[in-house]
Amino acid sequence: MPEWKEIATEAEFTARDRKLVEVSAELQIGLFKVNGEYFAVDAWCSHGRASLVHGEVEDHEVLCPLHGARFDLRTGRHLCLPAVRPVRRYDVKVENGTILALV
Ligand code: FES
Predict the structure, then answer these.
(1) pLDDT tens-digit profile, the chain (103 residues)
(2) If you count DSSP H runs as helices and E runs as strands, how many of each does the chain have, helices first?
């Protein structure tokens, strides 16, 4: 059953726009800040073992640094080849400066 977990603080995002979060040995998520909003998706591309946390972000799209697949950070949806599957997205909320994800 998913539960809300603290994954970052807003203060961490004063000097950056993303963070790799190790939720567990099996689950790493990428937390991104775009236009003042936070979005969380699987840290790893659905096409191969590349970290989306190192990808360029434009609007709400992240570009996989390895082969160039793009994903919508709002939905996790894959937007172009070579990815043929979405990445999982996670609900995010902010409470008193703490960022939580439903994982
Ligand atoms: Fe991301 Fe290939 S590993 S597009």
Answers:
(1) 999 999 999 999 999 999 999 999 999 999 999 999 999 999 999 999 999 999 999 999 999 999 999 999 999 999 999 999 999 999 999 999 999 999 9
(2) 0, 10
Token pair for 98: 């703490």
**CA 59, CA 57: separation in Å to the nearest integer?**
7
Residue 83 CA, closest ligand 1 atom number: 4
Q: Residue 62 C-alpha to ligand 1 middle, in angstroms?
A: 12
d(CA 95, CA 87): 25
